[in-house]
Design brief:
Number of domains: 1
Radius of gyration: 19 Å
Order of helices and strands: HHEHHEHEHEHEEHEHEHEEEHE
Number of helices: 11
Largest sheet: 10 strands, parallel
CATH superfamily: Aldolase class I
Helix content: 25-40%
CATH architecture: Alpha-Beta Barrel
Shape: globular
Bound molecules: iron/sulfur cluster
Oligomer: single chain
């Protein structure tokens, strides 16, 4: 493994992390790992935490069979989740405004689609993106697979970032999803990248994967050039009626390790402590921040599962002395491959 950088020596941005190196990071004593991640974190970040708000704009009835997801039509009978029609643009923008007033700087919108279809629903999503950007917030959507002209239209609407998670390792992927391939995911991400839209891409732990799979997922993410601008790390929320309903809860220290390894291997990305946070203690979350998490989903629901409420989040942020990122604090498309510190763009709003 490459020598560990010292406080004076900035960790290089690398895309050639090997599985052996990543597995060796996972094997470090926890506090050594957290110390190393915190060292890298301070070289590239100033301690601000981004608050992102997530809204399901079209819930349920998805044709994919992701085994963790209550929105899949394949498990609707067992989960009892009712398919809803798409929310209208004014309602969504009203929610975005409320999220901004509560301190969120990024508004993420999820539609349970296998892939985008041209037509009124997609046109409405484009209006939502334009409206969120007009609020001076970052706009992120997750809509499934895309065609090139659809990625182009999203870019023209001003989309900041497209969420499309790899979910797990290429080796374990078939255990979790059968209706699309790993390569399908990578192809969509390439289309998004080609339009210069930011990429939000991460995964889920606690689905029955081995330690190797977590390392392999990190390797896939860190190979991306540049690294994803945001890397959500999720703990499985085992929803009743889904094939993974019986999985045991994820140990908070496993989340800490995953976040720390993501931080070390992708120094400039925002690492987002995502699903499963509501099951973590304040102390567990504090360790995740120490390991390099610098973004959280903020608000009541994560698509269809419960999330910490905003008041509890604000109390935690205050107690830990964390500084919420302000809008436009950093440009959405800063250079993820540069070794330079993130420039302070402005401190508007
Ligand atoms: S594609 Fe998204 S909405 Fe559809 S089943 Fe998978 S995770 Fe759920």
């Amino acid at each position: 493994m490459n020598a560990q950088p010292t406080f004076n020596e900035k960790a290089p941005i690398r895309h050639d992390w090997t599985l052996d190196e990543i597995e060796a990071l996972f094997a470090l004593p926890l506090l050594d790992l957290v110390h190393r991640a915190q060292t890298v974190h301070r070289q590239y970040h100033d301690g601000a935490i981004q608050l992102a708000s997530l809204l399901s704009i079209k819930t349920g009835g998805c044709a994919e069979d992701c085994h963790y997801c209550p929105q899949s039509a394949h498990f609707a009978k067992q989960t009892g989740l009712v398919k809803e029609t798409q929310l209208d643009v004014d309602y969504v923008l009203g929610r975005a405004k409320l999220a901004k007033e509560a301190g969120a700087t990024r508004f993420c919108m999820g539609a349970a689609w296998r892939s985008v279809r041209d037509g009124a629903e997609f046109d409405a999503v484009l209006d939502m993106v334009r409206g969120v950007r007009a609020l001076n917030m970052e706009a992120c959507v997750t809509l499934g697979m895309l065609q090139p002209h659809q990625a182009k239209r999203l870019a023209e609407a001003g989309l900041t970032s497209y969420n499309h998670n790899l979910d797990t390792s290429p080796e374990f992927y078939d255990e979790i999803i059968s209706t699309r391939t790993y390569q399908d995911r990578l192809d969509t991400l390439a289309l998004v990248r080609a339009e210069n839209i930011g990429i939000c891409c991460g995964g889920i732990i606690g689905m029955g994967e081995k330690q190797f799979d977590r390392a392999s997922l990190i390797r896939e993410l860190s190979k991306m050039t540049p690294h994803p601008d945001s890397v959500p790390i999720n703990a499985l929320v085992a929803v009743r009626g889904t094939p993974l309903e019986g999985r045991p809860p994820v140990d908070a220290f496993d989340m800490v390790r995953m976040i720390a390894v993501a931080r070390i291997t992708m120094p400039k990305s925002r690492v987002r402590l995502s699903a499963g946070r509501s099951e973590m203690s304040a102390e567990g979350q504090a360790l995740c921040f120490m390991a390099g998490a610098n973004s959280i989903f903020y608000g009541e629901k994560l698509l269809t599962t419960d999330n910490n409420d905003a008041l509890a989040d604000r109390e935690l942020i205050e107690k830990l002395g964390l500084r919420p990122e302000v809008i436009e604090e950093r440009s959405a498309h800063y250079d993820l491959d540069s070794n330079e510190q993130i420039a302070d763009v402005s401190a508007a709003n």
